[in-house]
Write a structure and sequence with these properties.
With 275 residues, the chain is α+β, with helices and mostly antiparallel strands. The protein has helices at residues 18-30, 96-100, 204-207, 254-273, and strands spanning 38-48, 110-121, 127-131, 153-162, 170-176, 179-183, 186-191, 198-203, 218-227, 234-239, 244-246. It has one domain: Jelly Rolls, CATH 2.60.120. It contains four helices and eleven strands. Strands 1, 2, 3, 4, 5, 6, 7, 8, 9, 10 and 11 form an eleven-stranded antiparallel sheet that branches. The longest helix has 20 residues, at 254-273. The radius of gyration is 18 Å and the shape is globular. It starts with 17 loop residues before the first helix and ends with a helix.
Length: 275
């Protein structure tokens, strides 16, 4: 296996920590078909200096590339992150090394902090978070750098869900600039590049076979987002999937995973069998 391209995750992410497993247990006990009105997911913002400032990052405020598919790996790496796999310069990315800083806390290069988003459930069962002015780093990190807003940051949010084929679940992302969504460690939405707001929808039943999704098991969804150019920033999720928060940077705890992880799955399966 390519060390930079770990294959689809089989039910339990190998780097999940105790907090993540507790969340899975809660998911199993309460039932994923619950009708909660809102769900809050806490993600990680990383702020960058713009290219045209002293010490600025070369990938932020470089060029408007338009929508570019194929910028990142089909599978997340061993750290649960995407890799840049395109030629240098493609999509406005200087190199694999500069891209690697986007979704990793890097001293002197970015400033990271946590930020929650709340999805609200409508009567049709769709959970939505919609922000047409998604400026998560305004006046934070390195500051606005002479602009009225902070246009140079990334946002990473992870969650877990129980796959139920009978629910016909879908996940839609709409936004700008770069957006990549991974489900079970495999690329499901590919909206890379510096561009205006674009939208893409994933039907879980349609991808179940190729993404190794088994009815009744738990999997993860990871959203990797970047705002890299003036002047707009929008971020919208619409999904019928009840999500549970998962840590952005989990710490491997194999012993805990072995003890609690399988117990969570057993609870989840018993919950389904009792319906």
């Amino acid at each position: 296996m390519d060390p930079e391209a770990a294959g689809p995750l089989a039910i339990i992410n190998p780097v999940m920590n105790l907090k993540f497993i507790i969340a899975i247990c809660a998911l199993a006990v309460t039932g994923i078909a619950s009708a909660q009105v809102t769900t809050t997911l806490t993600g990680r913002v990383r702020d960058f200096k713009m290219r045209n400032t002293q010490g600025g990052h070369p990938d932020f405020e470089w060029q408007v590339s338009g929508h570019k598919k194929g910028m990142v790996s089909q599978y997340t790496n061993n750290a649960g992150k995407p890799n840049f796999v395109a030629p240098n310069g493609y999509g406005g990315v200087t190199s694999k090394d500069t891209f690697n800083q986007w979704f990793n806390d890097t001293a002197g290069v970015n400033v990271g902090f946590d930020m929650p988003i709340t999805l609200t459930r409508a009567n049709n069962g769709v959970y939505t978070y919609s922000n047409q002015n998604f400026f998560a780093a305004d006046n934070k990190g390195f500051g606005n750098q002479g602009y009225n807003r902070n246009y140079g940051f990334t946002y990473e949010v992870n969650s877990t869900f129980g796959y139920e084929a009978s629910k016909n679940h879908k996940f839609t992302f709409t936004g700008d600039d770069d957006v990549w969504v991974y489900i079970n460690g495999k690329l499901a939405i590919d909206l890379g590049g510096v561009h205006g707001a674009l939208s893409q929808t994933v039907d879980l039943n349609s991808i179940a076979s190729s993404f190794n999704l088994v009815d009744g098991n738990n999997y993860n969804i990871q959203v990797f987002y970047a705002e890299r150019h003036t002047t707009q920033s929008s971020f919208r999720i619409d999904t019928t999937i009840p999500l549970v928060n998962a840590p952005v940077n989990p710490v491997p705890e194999p012993a805990t995973m072995a003890v609690l992880g399988m117990g969570a799955l057993a609870l989840f399966r018993r919950k389904r069998a009792s319906k």
